[in-house]
């Protein structure tokens, strides 16, 4: 687990990462509930998925740094396989983001927010965490510069949030956009949030999480293909 521990240290040494992992999630806890009836959860919890995407692209950026420094190439001659390098880094990212999610859920419950089903919300966010990390891994595999990847992905996040029903209700979008929205993981996150507040059929919730896990697997495969180049 040497790579896992080293990855954790690298992440926590970066002050910007610490900001994303602590201050922003804490701020999300104290954002109020919208007065117009949407979103259904307090604002910080409606937009928490966007924060997860930002955090995941920040964390997985260290793998671009490794490519730039030739670390991945040197693995070919080391006793550590590419598979071990990959899964231990991904485990480090996942552990940090899951802890972040648990803190936000517990903090909101203690603060007195109505989260309807805190356990279900935690499950949804954790599953979306895996999806976010996989998307970011695949995205970063396309770039040689950490800065370029991050800046362009910020625009992609905003687009996904807009078309996925995170930033405003799906009903406000044209019908054509509503049909397109189903291809975005953020759409399924917003559907999951709606189910937590209004849903009854447990099968729907399982289906939503299943779709998000399929996205996670798909992007994980794409992101893990790039080894040395």
From TrEMBL:
Can you say where in the cell this protein is located? Membrane
Top-level division of the source organism's lineage: Bacteria
What are the transmembrane regions? 44-64, 85-110, 122-143, 150-168, 205-225
Taking every annotated instance into account, which residue ranges of this chain make up the domain ABC-2 type transporter transmembrane?
49-224
**How does the protein associate with the membrane?**
Multi-pass membrane protein
The question of whether Oxidoreductase is a record keyword is answered with no
Its signal peptide is none
* Pfam families in alphabetical order: ABC2_membrane_3
Record keywords, A-Z: Membrane, Transmembrane, Transmembrane helix
- Family matches, as InterPro entries: ABC2_TM, ABC_2_transport, T7SS_ABC-Transporter
| Major subcellular site | membrane
Q: What is this protein called?
A: ABC-2 type transport system permease protein
